[in-house]
Amino acid sequence: MNTAGTIDRPLTHDPQKQAPMTSSTSEPSGSVTPVFSSTGANVSRQNRTREMQLIPEALARAHMHDRLREAEAERQALRLIAARRMQRRAERVSLRARRALAMAVMH
Predict the structure, then answer these.
(1) Residue 76 CA to chain centroid, in angstroms?
(2) pLDDT tens digits, residue range 94-104?
(3) How is the chain split among helix, strand and coil, in percent rounded to 5?
(4) Is the distance from CB of 42 to CB of 16 less than 8 angstroms?
(5) Are 21 and 33 in contact (CB under 8 A)?
(6) Is 0.70 topped by the overall pTM?
(7) Burial class (CB in 10 A: 0-12, 13-18, 19+), 15
(8) Is 67 within 8 Å of 59 (Cβ atoms)?
């Protein structure tokens, strides 16, 4: 089936394969912009499209980086809390041992 594409459903999405826009005879001559070479525009449009297609990937990568950083900070905070808890426990045990030694020396 060889039907031409429409504006909403073009035959191809590649700008270089699309037919160039031409002015119709029913329009006044001053209303249409002059025909110019658009090879640079097509290249920049393709680069921009590629960049725009990569935006969600870049956002996901940045989001995952932030999540990993948050998780690492959370793990570090939990390790610090556990270390402080063990230090307090060790201080209590040390104090108990000193008291027990002092009681043994006194009797």
Answers:
(1) 24
(2) 999 999 999 99
(3) 65, 0, 35
(4) yes
(5) no
(6) no
(7) middle
(8) no
